[in-house]
Specification:
Structural class: alpha+beta
Helix content: 10-25%
Largest sheet: 6 strands, mixed
CATH class: Alpha Beta
Shape: elongated
Distance between the termini: 20 Å
CATH architecture: Roll
Strand content: 35-45%
């Protein structure tokens, strides 16, 4: 059984369109914030990864499905977990909910790269910290 990262957020006026509905592109920001908080929860940050390992985590692809709308002042939860992993990348599934309602489902392909933009092996220290959050699927 894998563990999940949870991140709570509130929808602000700046997140919505003129009708008070969250603008679709802002869900990508919510997902990014949740991934950043997931890194913090295991003792890392994007800056620390860059400084300590001379590498970055970038989004290679994102598949997102919008299920329902959310609105001004809604309280949302982003649940994130690592679906699968390779030597240089991992897929993170992220689900945004409002109460019991699923608002957004996304699968994000994240890749570790060096400062020259070339894919590199995920550093062992980070891999080990993320391991409790992996599903059972690990690819080589």
């Amino acid at each position: 059984m894998h563990e999940n990262f949870f991140h709570k957020l509130k929808v602000y006026y700046e997140d919505t369109d003129s009708g008070g509905v969250v603008y679709y592109a802002n869900y990508l920001k919510f997902l990014e914030r949740a991934r950043t908080e997931a890194l913090f929860s295991i003792g890392y940050s994007n800056k620390k990864i860059k400084d300590d390992f001379e590498s970055l985590i970038i989004v290679k692809a994102c598949n997102i499905e919008y299920k329902k709308s959310s609105h001004l002042e809604d309280e949302l939860t982003v649940r994130s977990f690592v679906k699968s992993i390779t030597k240089t990348s991992f897929f993170m599934n992220q689900i945004i909910t409002k109460g019991d309602d699923v608002i957004v489902e996304a699968q994000v392909h994240l890749v570790f790269i060096n400062i020259d933009g070339k894919p590199i092996r995920i550093p062992d220290a980070i891999y080990l910290k993320f391991k409790p959050y992996f599903c059972d699927t690990i690819k080589t």
